[in-house]
């Protein structure tokens, strides 16, 4: 029986010793003959300068910062000794950060999982024994079959997350990666991580999910770049130079952020918005546009749904309301007949209500009754929604000056093209869907999308991969041509898992969940309300976790399966998310450490043991080749053979990609300021919904972090903000002692005035507590943190905190229609220990 310890004693010295020991055991033998000769490495000191001839292999840093940086993997005597930036076809993208440079510390971390393990104590006790692969596979196959024979295949779920963005052995979703093939073969259900989805839900209302961001090399063509809820200097440091270079060429750089950080330091104008109030600021800007008539009426009539007429029940007026029977037409996607009942507008040219397709000059306001019905236009509805957010009121809520609100409004109208770098800082609130809808409208109604220099969104490229991947690779057939059974249709939202397990109900539907396989996922350390995560996991009959490192989630498992590291198998890298427009070929640089296997080989081995081997009768390279075998990729000259030859291939046909906003992805193909139907990310599960909040423009302050919330007005006066780290990506790299020398432990940053009031000095031990839980850490005094705010990274595991965890302070509460993890909607009290 073994208790797995946290690797706090690992150092450069222990790395050298450990690597030597592993070499002696034959675990680091050199492998692939494909390599590049080392250039100019003579005379280097330390480990990277020892040993024989150096070989260089291609690899991608595919962690969930989603940078996808292309790397040289330097190997000597079968050991990885260092990493460096590898050239991409466009040298502007050739970058590497501290995480990429410290990969050696991860590969040889004493926290690496090297062999299968089985729980021998109580779940969560951290007591495991080493077992063989045969024992692990037999245990999984037997237990899995017991569960599915009794409850059906959907009683086992795959909980895939974002730990590794490669094509085959990666976390590119169950529609692309091997996890999807396994899920469809065995018929499993799925659990959604519910991460980073609040803003995307808002955009689904506005654009239907159409991407509106240009390639980042286009930023130089903007007159103004605005970082709004975006922290590239820390989160994606390899992209920060694009903003700085554009600024040096005359681009005005504006940073909207509550904290004075590295981005604010290089800005021409820092806008210190009060955390969580970005939506009120955007509503104030829209109020200026609406009340002063600053928007192009022709654009509003032709491109938005502003002329649509809304009945008193909140639904659109349709031709059937005028006595015209709906027609039937074939759906262009499915070919099935669907009813067609056109939306009605009031056409000024005809002075009558007509179908939108027949109107030549639709009115935007002041429409008379239609067939005895009182109506309002969508524009009138939107104006009413933001009427209370005058510049003065918006400034008061957001902590800015009235002149700041006015200036931001003016910039979008007069100083374009404007590129808005909008990212996840705004996402981590319960009000994220409302906020993102409002901010998106500021950019899109002023014409700041869809052309050079005019962009809205983040710089991560993924749409071509989703569009072009041959998704049949995840729905295989056996040798007789029979298709696999397909996965269970359910994708469960995390906030409802305990209720599902306890009651057998998911909303109004009968469902069963008895087991889960965590893959690319450290849910116990990253999901809101860590005690809740432990609680629902403890109620399952089978918990499997496959990972590269020992994590808090592994410690909850019955069986732990060791996955090989990114440089220990072949794959297509930089695949789903990357900040450059290339997919890359990843060579196998060294053999897998210990008994670890690639995720592909792990899923293949389990499928074979369960009797599904015919569906996995292929290799990793064959999987990649099949996934890349599509008409879309052929048109780009992309195939596996071409990728292996070139190393990196561009996923856009043009030299600089500009988003196409000629057609929107909404039901009516227009930008929407109103939706007649409530949109749910995970379906209607019986939760109460306020149509006024969900169908039209709306904003409210944070449930817990808002200044007027019961929590902030009462016992918990501080707003707790999660922060990114330069040396971590979520909990990845938290086990890396190289980077721990720079940032060795979690710190809670306080404003100097608040610290003085509480008698707290730099380095003091403090307790943060709230309605959810408690965490004990050391304090750091930082004048860049606003008053009554605590800024703290959540990128650590439980053993790294003195007591508790950051996640124990976060409620799992969700927005009515979006099960988003609200990491920043947190209030707390601060106490000196």
Automatic annotation (TrEMBL):
InterPro entries: Asp_de-COase-like_dom_sf, MoPterin_dinucl-bd_dom, Mopterin_OxRdtase, Mopterin_OxRdtase_4Fe-4S_dom, Prok_Mopterin_Oxidored, TAT_signal. It comes from the Bacteria. GO terms for molecular function: iron-sulfur cluster binding; metal ion binding; molybdopterin cofactor binding; oxidoreductase activity. Residues 54-111 form the 4Fe-4S Mo/W bis-MGD-type domain. Keywords: Iron, Iron-sulfur, Metal-binding, Oxidoreductase, Signal. PROSITE patterns: 4FE4S_MOW_BIS_MGD, TAT. Belongs to the prokaryotic molybdopterin-containing oxidoreductase family. This is 4Fe-4S Mo/W bis-MGD-type domain-containing protein. It comes from Adlercreutzia caecimuris B7.
């Amino acid at each position: 029986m073994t208790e797995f310890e946290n690797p706090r004693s690992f150092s450069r010295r222990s790395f050298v010793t450990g690597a030597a020991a592993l070499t002696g055991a034959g675990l680091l033998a050199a492998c692939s003959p494909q390599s590049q000769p080392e250039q100019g490495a003579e005379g280097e000191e330390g480990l990277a300068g020892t040993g024989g001839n150096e070989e260089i292999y291609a690899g991608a840093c595919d962690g969930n910062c989603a940078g996808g940086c292309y790397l040289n993997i330097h190997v000597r005597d079968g050991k990885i000794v260092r990493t460096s930036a590898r050239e991409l076809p466009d040298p502007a993208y050739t970058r590497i950060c501290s995480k990429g440079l410290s990969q050696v510390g991860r590969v040889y971390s004493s926290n690496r999982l090297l062999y299968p393990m089985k729980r021998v104590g109580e779940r969560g006790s951290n007591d495991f024994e080493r077992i063989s692969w045969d024992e692990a596979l037999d245990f999984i196959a037997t237990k899995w079959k017991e569960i599915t024979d009794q409850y059906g295949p959907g009683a086992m779920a795959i909980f895939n997350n974002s730990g590794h963005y490669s094509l085959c052995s990666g976390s590119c979703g169950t529609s692309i990666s091997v996890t999807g093939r396994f899920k469809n073969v065995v018929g499993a259900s799925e659990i959604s991580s519910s991460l980073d989805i609040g803003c995307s839900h808002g955009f689904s209302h506005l654009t239907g999910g159409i991407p509106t961001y240009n390639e980042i090399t286009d930023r130089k063509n903007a007159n103004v770049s605005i970082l709004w809820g975006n922290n590239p200097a820390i989160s994606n440091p390899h992209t920060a130079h694009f903003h700085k270079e554009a600024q040096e060429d005359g681009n005005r750089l504006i940073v909207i952020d509550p904290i004075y950080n590295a981005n604010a330091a290089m800005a021409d104008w820092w806008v210190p918005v009060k955390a969580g109030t970005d939506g009120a600021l955007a509503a104030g800007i829209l109020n200026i546009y609406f009340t002063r008539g600053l928007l192009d009426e022709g654009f509003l009539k032709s491109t938005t749904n502003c002329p649509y007429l809304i009945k008193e029940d909140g639904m659109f007026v349709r031709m059937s309301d005028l006595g015209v029977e709906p027609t039937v037409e074939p759906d262009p996607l499915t070919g099935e007949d669907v009813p067609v009942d056109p939306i009605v507008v009031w056409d000024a040219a005809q002075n009558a209500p007509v179908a939108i397709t027949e109107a030549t000059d639709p009115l935007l306001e002041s429409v008379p009754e239609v067939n005895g019905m009182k109506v309002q236009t969508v524009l009138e509805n939107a104006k009413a929604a933001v009427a209370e957010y005058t510049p003065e009121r918006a400034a008061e809520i957001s902590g800015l000056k009235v002149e700041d609100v006015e200036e931001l409004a003016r910039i979008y109208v007069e100083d374009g093209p404007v590129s808005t770098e909008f990212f996840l800082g705004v996402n981590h609130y319960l009000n994220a869907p409302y906020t993102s809808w409002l901010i998106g409208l500021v950019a899109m109604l002023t014409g700041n999308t869809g052309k050079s220099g005019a962009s809205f969104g983040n710089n991560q490229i993924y749409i071509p991969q989703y569009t072009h991947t041959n998704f049949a690779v995840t729905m295989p057939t056996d040798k007789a041509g029979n298709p696999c059974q397909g996965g269970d249709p359910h994708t469960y939202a995390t906030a409802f898992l305990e209720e599902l397990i306890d009651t057998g109900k998911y909303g109004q539907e009968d469902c069963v969940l008895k087991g889960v396989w965590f893959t690319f996922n450290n849910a116990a350390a990253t999901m809101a309300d860590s005690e809740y995560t432990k609680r629902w996991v403890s109620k399952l009959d089978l918990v499997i976790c496959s990972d590269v490192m020992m994590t808090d989630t592994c410690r909850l498992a019955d069986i732990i399966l060791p996955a090989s590291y990114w440089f220990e198998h072949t794959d297509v890298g930089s695949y789903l998310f990357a900040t450059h427009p290339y997919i890359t070929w990843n060579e196998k640089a060294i053999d897998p450490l210990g008994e670890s296997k690639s995720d592909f080989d792990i899923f293949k081995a389990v499928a074979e043991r369960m009797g599904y081997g015919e569906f996995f009768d292929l290799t990793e390279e064959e999987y990649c080749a099949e996934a890349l075998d599509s008409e879309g990729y052929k048109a780009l000259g992309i195939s596996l053979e071409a990728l292996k030859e070139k190393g990196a291939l561009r996923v856009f046909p043009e030299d600089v990609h500009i988003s196409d906003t000629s057609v929107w992805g909404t039901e009516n193909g227009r930008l929407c300021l109103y939706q007649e139907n409530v949109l749910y990310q995970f379906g209607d599960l019986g939760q109460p919904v306020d149509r006024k909040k969900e169908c039209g423009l709306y904003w409210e302050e944070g449930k817990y972090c808002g200044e007027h919330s019961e929590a902030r007005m009462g016992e918990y006066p501080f707003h707790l903000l999660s922060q990114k780290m330069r040396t971590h990506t979520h909990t990845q790299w938290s086990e890396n002692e190289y980077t721990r020398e720079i940032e060795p432990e979690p710190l809670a940053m306080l404003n100097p005035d608040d610290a003085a009031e509480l008698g707290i000095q730099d380095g003091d031990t403090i307790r943060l507590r709230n309605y959810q839980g408690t965490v004990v850490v050391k304090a750091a005094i930082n004048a860049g943190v606003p008053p009554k705010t605590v800024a703290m990274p959540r990128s650590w595991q439980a053993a790294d905190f003195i007591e508790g965890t950051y996640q124990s302070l976060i409620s799992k509460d969700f927005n009515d229609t979006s099960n988003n993890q609200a990491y920043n909607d947190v209030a707390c009290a601060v106490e000196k220990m």
